[in-house]
Structures are given as structure tokens and as C-alpha cells.
Here is the input.
Amino acid sequence: MVAEKPSGLLVHRSSIDARERRAMVQMLRDQIGAHVHPVHRLDKATSGLVLFALDTEVARNLSEQFASGSVKKVYKAIVRGHVVGDRVINHALRDEVDHRGQRIKGGIVREADTHLEVLSHWTVPLPVDRYPEGRYSMVRLSPRTGRFRQLRRHMKYISHPIIGDVRYGKGTHNRFFAEQLGLSRLWLHAESLELSHPNTGRLLRVDTGVAADFARCLIWLSSWSENSGI
Here is the structure.
């Protein structure tokens, strides 16, 4: 099963957000009347596709595909600044949680790679922070490794944090978007998954369209700039 998660919903309950009672796992279980096994995670703040197995054998197969790096995941993000040039971000990241999602200190530093493709630039002629205008980009991100909050940490590393990121971003830009759009979220969306079907071995690709709030944001950004394409 593949389900599209809205921003603000946990995939499963976690001690990281112990007060939150809603989670995709319980909602899907109640919806279909069967147990579901999440085989990967998205942050609560991230929207997009999440893959579930309906039995332990399929869960094991899919988990092995994710562990081997053979699953292709593609995201779109709106970030601060005009990002220049497609690239591979190669920046090792220290583990912040263990395999159960529990926070740890002094974790192992592991290799982490993300492919970045620049899609659009916008300039918003309104004062943001100490600047007379705001500059933003939309990028396509494909993580080649699966580290905790890899995309958010990598975009901070190259000084183009994702808008709406309260941990790794900047509050002035986050508040600017929230005030202009009347909504507050992390502008990161998991748009596609590509993997081998666990039963047939055939290539399986699942895509989701642009979320309604993402589309609204893109319309607003494009209205400010005549030259939004790259």
C-alpha cells in the first residue's frame, strides 16, 4: 500500500513527539481493517508518499530494498535563496536517532549523498529580514542514502534551508511565508517512489501530484516573478 501523508501527521507514534496521538499506521489500519507495516519514514512535517506492507514477508523484502539503497525517492522543496547549479551534496551526517527512532547522543558519523536539481527561481519584491526582497528556489532532491532528516540537514549545509524548517531554517523567512499564505508547514514533499515489486520483481513507480497547498504556494511565488524558469 502507498498512501499520501499530509504535513503535520506522524507515520507512527514516537517518543520524539510523545503528546501526538494521531498516526498514519493506526488510521490506515482502521480504514482497511488490517495491520500495516511502514517500511520507511517521513518526518511529521514532510508531506508525500509513504510505503506500507501488508505482511511481514513483503515488509522484509521492501526493508531490504531501502537498506541497500535500491529504492529511488524523489522530493520537491522550496528553499531560501537562488540555488546555483545542479550538484551532488556529499556531506556525512551524525546519527541523531537509533533504529527505533529514539534520540541518541554521540552517534556514528555516516556517509550521506543527495542529488539536487534546480527547477525554478523567484524574487519576491517585499522586505524579508534585513533585505529589501526575498529570493527563493524550487529544487528536486533525490537522497542516495537514508540518514535521519538528511534532506533538511543537507540543505542547511549548503546555506539554502527549506522554508518552514523550524529546526534548520530561519524564522524570519518561515514567518514571511506563513503570513503571506495563511498557513504554516515545511515546504518539502515526497513526490515519487521507484522500486522492485516485492512479488513480481518488476519495476514499480508511484507518483503523486502536487499537493493543494504546494500548488497554492507555487502560484503565489510565480505571480511575483516574470522569469521563474531555469
